[in-house]
Design goal:
The chain has 68 residues and is of the alpha+beta class. The protein has two helices and two strands; from the N terminus they run E-H-E-H. The protein is elongated, with a radius of gyration of 14 Å. It holds the Pfam family Methyltransf_11.
Length: 68
């Protein structure tokens, strides 16, 4: 597998190589989420599935993540 935990982009895979891609809580760290979306589209098969999660803005908007 190419890349590492520190290397979130670029994705260097063949076109239409994967049926399923998953990303968990990573997009909000990327400076260009639209560009990464285009790359994901290229490496998924035509009927592929992209599953991702992001942190909800309410959780980080105030600056403190200490919910009571």
């Amino acid at each position: 597998m190419q890349g590492s935990i520190e290397d979130l982009e670029p994705l260097n895979f063949k076109h239409h190589e994967f049926d399923v891609l998953m990303s968990s809580f990573a997009f909000h760290y990327l400076p260009d989420s639209e560009g990464i979306g285009e790359e994901v589209k290229e490496i998924l098969t035509i009927s592929g599935t992209f599953i991702f999660s992001i942190e909800h803005p309410v959780y980080t908007a105030y600056g403190s993540q200490d919910w009571i």
